[in-house]
Amino acid sequence: MKLIDADELELDTEWSDYYDGFTSYSQSQINEAEEVKAIPLDKVKQAREEMENEVFDSLDDDGSDWFTADKVSECMAILDRLIMEETESEE
User: Nearest 5 degrees, angle CA 42-CA 34-CA 13?
Assistant: First the structure.
């Protein structure tokens, strides 16, 4: 699957007198469109769950929060790992 930014395309085929203009995009324009980088939603959800677990692991038994910069760093490391995995899979 190739993900493209449809906003970058211009209507250029299938003329409509009703709309007084083109109504669709040519296959060649779609084929030549630059691919956008995207991370699959299921991987983003997995990273979110891991970060949420980091937050709940930081709660004391009485429910008080001791969320620290270290926990924020751990959450950022989860995102960094996700980004790195996606970058490596593109190569």
Answer: 110
